[in-house]
Amino acid sequence: MKHDYLEPFVVEASSRHTQTCILLHGRGSNGPKFGEALLASQTADGSTLREIFPSMKFIFPTAKKRRSTILKRISINQWFDNYSLEDLSMRENLQVDGLRETTEVVHQIIRDEVSSGISLSNIILGGLSQGCAASIYALLTIEEKLGAYIGMSGWFPLVKYVNESLQEIGQEAKGRADGSDEGAFNINTHGFGFGSFGNEEQNEEESGTIGKEDEEDEEDEEESDEEEESDEEESEEEEERDETGHDDGEAPIGAGQNEKTTTSTSNSTNASKAPLKVIEALNFLRENIDFPPIGSTADSWPSLKTPAFLGHGRRMRR
């Protein structure tokens, strides 16, 4: 799909081209500015990235100009819009259009590199700040395993909708062999776990909820217990249906879905009561940007096995 994005800033390999690194800049920046600064920086021994990786081609896409809700509708380079920098989960419907377009653009760059003869195992994807957030989304919705993912000072868009699923997957990953790619979706074995994204906002909400519950009288608590028992029974029934191989309905509806999809709201409510499966979590991300869902028979997904590293510096959300 064609989008009105500028051509990426490209720095060719200084020797025979065998690897490609695609890196997305932060909000308000652009490909040339980010790329030139990064490639001019030096390691402790004075070497640059191009000197260390002479066979690597660097691609720095530039985000299109979008009206920024945070900056009173000023047009800036950003991969997607945000309503707030303090709580990135607020009005996430504003993020969907940008995430869809950016994901399509990143996927096309990857396809172009493969067409030029570079194998997927030699393609690295990553980004800084908002570019990290956008590239994480692109990684989780691509259909192949890449060589690596590198993210810096970013976050995971729409994390509150899939956090329960990721926590469950993290527990399963701990039981797998050390160093195995099988646990790459949680990516604790490769440097970070998606469960760490957005937890501050979630913990604050949970703390407030606990405080309110302490103020309730005994009668309200008894009613709450009865509701929890009812929810547990419904959850057990859903698990029994899953074990028999029956579908448990459409994927949960996320921010940004149009009116024709609102009939599945009840499925989203049910999903919040029981952790989603890996593929269900991915399908939520895919359907949010109008990508076709993964088949219900799938029990794995190639992109989940991509080795990944996330670096955190001083807290920043741009």
Helix coverage percent: 25-40%
Number of strands: 8
Give the integer mean of the pLDDT values.
Answer: 70
- State the shape: globular
What is the total number of structural domains? 1
Q: What is the annotated CATH architecture?
A: 3-Layer(aba) Sandwich
The profile of the biggest β sheet is: 6 strands, mixed
Give the C-alpha Rg.
21 Å
How many helices in DSSP terms? 9
* Spatial arrangement of strands, main beta sheet: 1-3-2-6-7-8
Low-pLDDT regions: 176-232, 234-276
CATH class descriptor? Alpha Beta
The amount of beta strand, in percent, is: 5-15%
User: What is the multimeric organization of the chains shown?
Assistant: single chain
Topology:
Layout: E1 9-11, E2 19-24, H1 31-40, H2 49-52, E3 56-60, E4 65-68, E5 74-77, H3 93-115, E6 123-128, H4 130-141, E7 148-152, H5 159-174, H6 199-214, H7 218-243, H8 265-273, H9 278-288, E8 308-311
Helix pairs in contact: 3-4
GO molecular function: carboxylic ester hydrolase activity; palmitoyl-(protein) hydrolase activity
EC number: 3.1.2.22
Domain Phospholipase/carboxylesterase/thioesterase: 8-170
Summary, kept brief:
Helices cover 40% and strands 12% of the residues. It has helices spanning 31-40, 49-52, 93-115, 130-141, 159-174, 199-214, 218-243, 265-273, 278-288, and strands at 9-11, 19-24, 56-60, 65-68, 74-77, 123-128, 148-152, 308-311.
Give a quick set of tags describing it.
about 10% strand; about 325 residues; lipid metabolism; LYPA1-2/EST-like; alpha/beta; hydrolase; two-stranded antiparallel ribbon; serine esterase; palmitoyl-(protein) hydrolase activity
